[in-house]
Design goal:
By secondary structure, the chain is mainly α. It contains 12 helices and no strands. It has a single domain, classed as MetI-like fold (Orthogonal Bundle), CATH 1.10.3720.10. The protein is 83% helix and 0% strand. The N and C termini lie far apart (67 Å).
Length: 283
């Protein structure tokens, strides 16, 4: 047995820190929560207003533009139609809205941080251990402080998803910019390009495949949080999976699980296609 004299706990320290945050910035957290919830609700309502057949055509058009393959676009439309055919269309839209908001926030945070990390070795040395912790810490651990700050519902689910899903995008953005050929950068410097011209004219375009791979990974990881998010009040396909587990309803859980897989396949194929150089995408 480990001696009690040598044991210690950080639980009290963490609890005091979270309590201080709630006391000092509670109003700010409430405003952020209300604003984010407003965006989510409007997006959900907007998706519901679009007729199902029109949404299928829109997604099919995006898939066709990305893959340049008619068969792939028709297959994606057919998979989404299958989700609606089993009565999960509304749940699919709720999950899609939640995931889109979380992914957009992760992109807005991840790409700038990746760019800064690529430009600063000191910042990178600080970020990498934090990203390791964010990726290895069990996702349930994120829910505890987020619930204390934002309560139950969609907002804490989004923040927990962002924490879990942002690290791959930060890493791959940093990696993509660092892998830009030095000879190319020397030639750009020789022409007197500013740092902003180098970034937007050379580095980001050349690093785009790596960045899009990061967006793909972030999207997939955000989708993997769907079931966990349902445990704290976020509705959608994850809710049906959770109910299926709780009631031992294998059919319900399987239908919702397959719908999540279909959504993952659709998003994965589109983002991967946009991540490849356009000359590699053949009609």
């Amino acid at each position: 047995m480990f001696p009690d004299d040598l044991t210690f706990s950080i639980a009290d320290w963490v609890n005091r820190g979270v309590d201080a945050l709630v006391t000092r910035y509670g109003d700010l957290f409430r405003q952020v929560s209300e604003s984010l919830l407003w965006v989510i609700v409007r997006l959900e309502n907007g998706l519901r207003l679009v007729p199902w057949w029109l949404l299928l055509i829109i997604v099919g058009g995006i898939a066709l533009h990305a893959t340049r393959k008619v068969f792939s676009a028709l297959l994606i439309m057919g998979l989404l139609f299958l989700v609606g055919a089993v009565g999960l269309w509304d749940k699919l839209l709720l999950t899609l809205a939640l995931m889109l908001v979380a992914t957009v926030i992760a992109v807005l945070i991840g790409i700038p941080l990746g760019i800064l990390a690529a430009r600063s070795n000191r910042l990178r040395a600080v970020l990498m251990p934090l990203l390791d912790i964010m990726q290895t810490l069990p996702s349930f651990v994120y829910l505890i402080p987020v619930l204390m700050l934002f309560g139950l519902g969609k907002v804490p689910a989004i923040f927990a998803t962002v924490i879990y899903a942002a690290p791959p995008l930060i890493r791959l953005t940093d990696l993509g910019i660092r892998q830009v050929d030095r000879e190319v950068m020397e030639a750009v410097n020789a022409f007197g390009a500013s740092r902003w011209q180098q970034l937007f004219g050379v580095q980001l375009p050349l690093a785009l495949p790596s960045i899009m791979a990061g967006v793909n990974q972030t999207t997939m990881m955000a989708l993997s949080m769907v079931v966990i998010a349902s445990m704290i009040g976020a509705r959608g396909l994850g809710e049906d999976v959770l109910v299926g587990i709780q009631t031992l309803n294998i059919g319900l859980g399987l239908e919702a699980g397959l719908a999540i897989v279909i959504l993952a396949v659709v998003i994965d194929r589109i983002t991967q296609a946009y991540g490849r150089p356009r000359h590699e995408v053949r009609p």
